[in-house]
Amino acid sequence: MPPLHAERLYGLLGQERDQNETTRLIRDYAKGEGAPVIGAHHVTCSDEAERECIDAFQRGFVRYALPSLKFFHQAPFRTANLGGRYEWGSIPIAEDHFALAKGAEAWKLLLVKINAHVSVENGPEGPRYGKLARYGSESVYCGAIDALLNERSLPFADEMHATFELEGIDRLATLRDTKRIPVEARSLYAAILSARLQARWAMVEIQDHVPRSPTLYVVLPCVSINRSGHDTEIICGVYTSDRRDPTDPHDEYCGLGDRPELYELTRQGQSVTVTDPHLHEPRHARDHRAAVLAQWREREERFERPQRLEEALKVADRAPKTQPALAKAALTGLLAVLTEVAPVPAALVLFSSGALGIHHAVQAHRLAREAEGDPVARKMLAELRRELEDLPPEKAQHLIELLKQEYRG
User: What predicted TM-score, i.e. pTM, was given to this entire model?
Assistant: First the structure.
């Protein structure tokens, strides 16, 4: 049986509660694991309305759970940007920082809290999400999510748009469909989806990262509810990734899914609960590198090899395995040709093998699904070509073998 603090936290999923209450339960859950060191990474929107969320986390969790950076000074690793987007590379940095705390060499718990936000104004017909007074005038909360819903083409909105269409599911079209999503709940559901999908990216990077010290990761997608009074919060789910034993990793998720048409909203006084059919069903977190390769294998089409590619493959064949340093030169030539004549299969195979960074996950899913996008694939391959100088010869030889198998069948 899970300890009481875990049952309470999981029982709270989807329920709007006071931020101090949710923070206290998160603290009890984390401290109940008995980790020698607890670290934290907090992701929020840049909106000044999120100050209350930040303060509640600092006051109720950070102050009691984290090691002191200075004398009586505890602080989480923080990211604040438009929309509360997960920033690739941030978890490896945060993990490295807290691994330096005394006791973390045994193991540590790293809690990653990702907050989207939305406002609510209660009226006689029920709650209205997405708009609230700001300095005496009506304003949207969250502005980034509002831009996304209204198809404004801005760098941050374009990035969020790509995430909302992950794996070919047009979640934005669903959110805009008044027959499937209640208009009054649209902004709330969009905020839940945003937190949920950004937490997925955090988990994807965790799965790809080798921690400096053994680590139990807990990732919480949450939604702050900005009110004219005290703000509230919904914990949307719990990702756990146990990386304390590198030979036996375990990745799991429990909470709201990523299909807004399955959400159901109920009211209890001034608060709400959001559920879906699988809210309390733990499921294994997916391996997105393997998922991309499987998707590509389902639809790939063989093609005639151009003569230039055949010649580059023959050069790679002649690179003696007894002199692995020559493999880097052969791989350089092979990648140059593939970038010109067949970049998509190369990019997908190299991404799936781990040779290309996990931050390419959105692009890789789209390439596997559409089998188009040569400029995107070329950009991905260019990143690897820039890193060839530092690539171990044995890794270069391994990548050559993968590419030869892919293009020769």
Answer: 0.90
